[in-house]
Amino acid sequence: MAALKTRISIENLNMFYGDFHALKDVCLQVPQNNVTALIGPSGCGKSTLLRCVNRMNDLIDGVRTEGRIIIDDQNIFSPETDVVLLRKKVGMVFQRPNVFDQSILNNLRFGLRIHRQMRSKSETMELIQKSLEDVGLWDILKDKLHHNARQLSLEQQQRLCIARVLILLPEVILLDEPCSSLDPIATMRIEELLRVLRERYTLVIVTHNMQQAARASDYTGFMYMGQLIEFGLTQGIFTAPCKELTENYITGHFG
Amino acid sequence: MFRKINERIIETAIRVSGFAVIAFVILIFLFLLKDSLSLFRVYPLKAFLTSTQWLPISEPPTFGIIPLLMGSILVMVGAIVICVPIGVATALFIAEVAPGYLKMILKSLVEILASIPSVVLGFIGIVWLGPFLKTTLHLNTGMCGLTGAILLAFMALPTIISISEDAIIGIPRSYKEAAYGLGATRWQTMWRIVLPAASSGIIAAVMLGIGRVIGETMVVMMVTGNAPIIPHSILQPLRTLTATIAGEMGETVGGSDHYYALFAVGLVLFVITFMLNFVADISLRKSRK
Hints:
The structure holds 2 protein chains of 2 kinds.
Chain A: E1 6-17, E2 20-31, E3 35-39, H1 46-53, E4 63-71, E5 74-75, H2 83-89, E6 90-93, H3 104-114, H4 121-134, H5 138-141, H6 154-166, E7 172-176, H7 184-197, E8 202-206, H8 210-216, E9 219-224, E10 227-233, H9 234-239, H10 244-250
Parallel strand pairs in A: 3-8, 3-9, 6-7, 7-8
Antiparallel strand pairs in A: 1-2, 1-4, 4-5, 9-10
Helix pairs in contact in A: 3-6, 4-6
Chain B: H1 2-42, H2 45-50, E1 54-55, E2 62-63, H3 66-97, H4 100-115, H5 118-137, H6 145-169, H7 173-181, H8 186-197, H9 199-215, H10 218-223, H11 241-249, H12 257-288
């Protein structure tokens, strides 16, 4: 196996919601161009960890963070970090498809607009076409770009959300239970999409669905009560976990 | 047995009150219509709607609604231009920006603003705002459309602020998360996502605010100068539909043409407010979907 390059380095990360210690001393090296899954029971901190990586937790009052997350040799918590640029580089896809109540075109253009990357019309259309092709929507939607995005099926909405992130040419994509509101077939197709996207992006996916982690990821981290219990190749975690807690979880003793 | 009768009585009472409200609205409309029609038997409808003069006590009288309608519209437009930006911005500030304690203070201040009697606002207009505008803008008189528009804007603000705020608060959190997640700043999120998503609620708020403005009588009667002539600018004295009815009703003889003409003015006012409320209702319904 080729030597792995670390894309995101999480070092001794602690996070508190007020008095609640939500993440305890998490250390994790997320490998580049792979799908890394975070699994664990509800409330174990996997979404919280994910939301640290593009500082979405800044939006919540009373959150305190200690430790470092290094992306491209820079600690994202340092005061010099431009959150706007960070979130452009580290895109996020949410649990429920959250397309804006506007046209498909506007949904895709939003990111370009806010980052002042609206170029000529043809160039913009090229970017839009490219991003929709990447998520497999172009052929279906190319004649409906002016329709309201909320008229699409949930799966298409979630794909559009991914396209909306891709159009900004990110390097890392965080996915917070992206399939939890989709049916099994749609879930399968999104997973296929992740496998394709992995070639060009570093993906981190949070899922409560262990089969999904097993199917779709290369690396898996198991979290419990705010701690990262075990991290390794997905195959290893699911076939020969080192820790008893991990084994109990993946064999369904609790969860 | 007793319970059954009780139920029956309560049900009937509720039903009667419900129908009574509908009946009142219809009766008011019919009443206005009947008395207005009495005017149009002796005075042509076309002249009423197109004549540019309101001279109710000259011989023969002219009842042209245009100057009054223009007065009302001018004051209304002036008030909208002032209160919509301020109102929507305040609503955004309360809903999205202000920290908890400031939110509480602002909301109660808005409620206090709503409870100021219009005659008090009119009083402020006469003793302070009118003279102030007169000296700063070098006008012939401070009793003009602009004074009325400013005070009416203040009257419409509470309605606009509280209903817009509700609409803004109702925006799903997920929209904002999506915008922030793509790297939008707070301002970009508000301008491009929150406001468009809340637009139908905000339109309804503005419509209801306008409804208040156009029906308001006391303030405009006190500060707009009461000159029933076609105003060429908002800086001139003018007179609104409402002020005309209130000011002249006491001087007319019941059953005279002048008396009926005032009812016709009332009918026009009723139709305008009815339409405004109707539009507001449609947009509110749309925003709740």
